[in-house]
Amino acid sequence: MKEALIVEAVRTPVGRKKGSLSGVRSEDMAGMVLKELMIRTGLKPDLVEDVIMGCVSQVGEQGFCIGRQAALIADYPFHVPGISIDRQCGSSQQAVHFAAQAILAGDMDVVVAAGVENMSRTPLGSNVKGTELSSELTSRYEIIHQGLSAERIAQKWKISRQEMDEFSLESHLKALRAQKEGRFEREIMPIPVQLPDGSQIDVSKDEGPRPDTNLEKLSNLKSPFLENGQVTAGNASQISDGAAAILIMSGDKAAELGLKPRFRIIARSVVGSDPTLMLTGPIPATAKVLAKAGLKLEDIDVFEVNEAFAAIPLAWLRETGADREKLNPCGGAIALGHPLGASGARLMTTMMHELERSGGRYGLQTMCEGHGMANATIIERLN
């Protein structure tokens, strides 16, 4: 039986908005992680049969098929194709799914799944600027801002402002601890950045975690979405820059090349959810992927649930009853940042390294997505 195995994964540090990575073009940054995959494995890029690149705002530097451009920039031979896909925040997690499906179908043996977003250079919404939603859509569904969706989720699940701020602080503390313990060092490739004075530095650390964050500061932030609202910049994900890439291979090809795969992709799910609440998809996606894998919630050692807003993982915890101690052990997007198209591959990369560090066997990743969707993936660590 065909298997889809993960051989290697790497990511850039996640840069803050207008931070150290804001001067790096998106396609160049994406090319860097593609090239690093080949360096770390010692493989020739001509073995790659496709590059599937998640990217949300496909305009400007991120337009014109950034997946293809990045492969060429990474010095992959021109016979290696590339494609860009948009499943909103889950774009590069969907890239992992498409790569695994190509391998399981027998169409390919070596595929790179990746993602990129430099939100400093291509702001959120750039690709829809000047347009309005079709009345054919808005007459059928109430389409609201994601921040308002998060407000409604907090109300529906009776999640208080204090709970969300406490979750946010917890995310920062976990990320800071992970940085201090060096947990991210293996997964991050340093990115060379040119300074205004002409000198160059290597950026190798996520810029999002804030050592000075505390509950008092978080509680004083105002909501931009509702008067007296609960959702604030402090309990929502950060606007960020970054890229990540994952090398996925069939078991037969890995054996032929003498490689030792690190993980097996054992189940995948994707669901649609209420497009007004929009962000609740991880709840049914989790149930669906567990059923596909024949596993129970208790079998999972690490959960990565994207922290688009604190209300999302908190509602997910309420509905699933999962062990909170297993959730986002190295912090999440509230602390580390959320470079949209890159986040799925970033979460997967971090989850892999945390499972290896802790000795866990199974990891489950899930992400809410715009217009009401969610992906979920279960991977198994290989001894």
Notes on the structure:
The protein is an alpha+beta fold. It is about 35% helix and about 20% strand. It contains twelve helices and twelve strands. The strands form two sheets. Strands 1, 2, 3, 4, 5, 8, 9, 10, 11 and 12 form a ten-stranded mixed sheet that branches. Strands 6-7 form a two-stranded antiparallel sheet. Helix 2 links the parallel strand 3 and strand 4. The chain starts with a strand and ends with a strand. Belongs to the thiolase-like superfamily. Thiolase family. It is found in: Cytoplasm. This is Acetyl-CoA acetyltransferase. InterPro entries: Thiolase, Thiolase-like, Thiolase_C, Thiolase_CS, Thiolase_N.
Key structural traits:
globular; 10-stranded mixed sheet; 383 residues; two-stranded antiparallel ribbon
Spatial gap, N to C terminus: 19 Å
Helix content: 25-40%
Rg, rounded, reads 20 Å
Q: What's the total helix number? A: 12
Mean pLDDT equals 97
Residue runs with pLDDT of under 50 for 5 or more positions: none
* C-alpha geometry: globular
Number of strands: 12
Q: Strand pairing plus helix content: what structural class? A: alpha+beta
What order do the SSEs take from the amino end to the carboxyl end, as H and E?
EEHEHEHEHHHEEHEHEHEHHHEE
Percent strand? 15-25%
Task: Give the biggest sheet.
Answer: 10 strands, mixed
Task: Give a concise summary.
This protein is an alpha+beta fold. It has twelve helices and twelve strands.
